[in-house]
Description:
This protein is mainly α. The protein is 76% helix and 1% strand. The protein has a two-stranded antiparallel ribbon with strand order 1-2.
Amino acid sequence: MMADLIAWVMVLAVAAYACAGGTDYGAGFWDLMAGGADRGKRPRWLIDHAMAPVWEVNNVWLIFVFIVMWTGFPTMFQTVFEAMWLPLALAAVGLVLRGAGFALRKPSRRLARRRVYGAMFAVASLLTPFFLGAVLGGIASGRVMVGTTASADAWANPTSVLAGLLAIAATAFLGAVFLCADARRFGADDLVDYFRRRALLAFCAVVVLALIGLPVTHSDAQYVWEGLTGGWGLLLVVLAAICGLATALILLRRIHGWSRYTSVASVALTVGAWGFAQKPYLLPTSLTVAQAAGAAHTMRWLAIVTVIAIVLVGPALVVLYRLDTMGELEPLTDADTRAAPAPGDNL
């Protein structure tokens, strides 16, 4: 019972990272696609100001996932990191380069340096979610088992590639939806339509990849496919699809108030469906939750520490996200909105 509870805590943490961190990755994706220095200056200014208050905080969820996995399910942790060390290492490098690029780009006055740091941030925002998605795809396909040695097949397979592409598309969708709302709040009316169109394009990409995933997972990840097409997994998939369609309709009708909530719900429900689809396995179909669980006293202490962490950190995160969505942390100035030239831009 305690092991099942901790496993669901881990799934919830994955969902939180997919939504919060995914929004940041999506912003980086659109930074990459914004174009040259002149054409992409206004979107990048908005991305910088929208992300600045929360981009570092969102990695808390990823750290929490690894702590729960390491402490509560050490066998799973060892197996996944032995079999998937290369994509996980590439994702870690991407996280470092992404953070460094974002932090160093803004204060840089020379155009050449801003381009280098911006490229680091944008490319890492594309590759990091792909590799994380590829890891989840390898797990879902049943290629990661106790004793599995590292190999390209563990993460370079149809399900992994599909999961990686879905991760990119979903983060691009979230990022565009949030940036659309940010542009509206900051009064940058032209950027509202700019990111609205991109959110709709990203949603179409998610739909296409999801449809492609039906035959792919049927043949390559049979156990998870059965879980997603029946029971609670199917119910959550349907709810996720409804939330995604609702987001698209809200964007089409230019009613942006609820688009953030429905887009986040769509991604979170998809992660929940994946959790139900794998039940009772952590590594389909070789390692169950009960088999992977640590010692009973360790699980009890992990549950206690988790509750304490939620009580201490949860309210602060809620306040931070609330202040950020209300635009109270770092409002854009008129010069930022108009993309006024800064000293040294042409050096």
